[in-house]
Design brief:
- Helix content is about 40%, strand content about 15%.
- By secondary structure, it is of the alpha/beta class.
- The chain has one domain (about 1-95): Rhodanese-like domain (Oxidized Rhodanese, domain 1, 3-Layer(aba) Sandwich), CATH 3.40.250.10.
- The chain has a five-stranded parallel β-sheet with strand order 1-5-4-2-3.
- Helix 4 links the parallel strand 4 and strand 5.
- The radius of gyration is 13 Å and the shape is globular.
Length: about 100
């Protein structure tokens, strides 16, 4: 697994098109999200893992990067090999990249 800061991820997304997987709760996702991200809350990921392509690249996202890191490890244990965790989560993204993004 790779960890990326918001600035590193922003640069990475210029040339790459990973699946941005947000593991926050739906109400959190409704407040703010990265463009083109999909939401599968942490507690439901196990039930949806068969819907994910283990060959695809994933960027794991949550509020501060802790839940996404746990779910990144979970996906790695399930055989996923192209995993990036957004360090600091959407809170860091809002502070460093998108000042118009809602905070909570």
């Amino acid at each position: 697994m790779q960890q990326m800061t918001p600035k590193e991820l922003q640069a990475y997304l210029v040339n790459k098109n990973p699946v941005i997987l947000d593991v926050r709760e739906e109400w959190e996702f409704d407040i703010c999200k990265l463009t083109n991200s999909i939401n599968i809350p942490m507690g439901k990921l196990q039930n949806h893992i068969n819907e994910l392509n283990s060959e695809a690249s994933y960027v794991m996202v949550c509020h501060h990067g802790v839940r996404s890191l746990q779910m990144a490890h979970y996906l790695e244990q399930a055989g996923f090999t192209k995993i990036i965790n957004l360090s600091g989560g959407v809170a860091a993204w809002a502070n460093e990249i998108d000042p118009n993004m809602a905070h909570y």
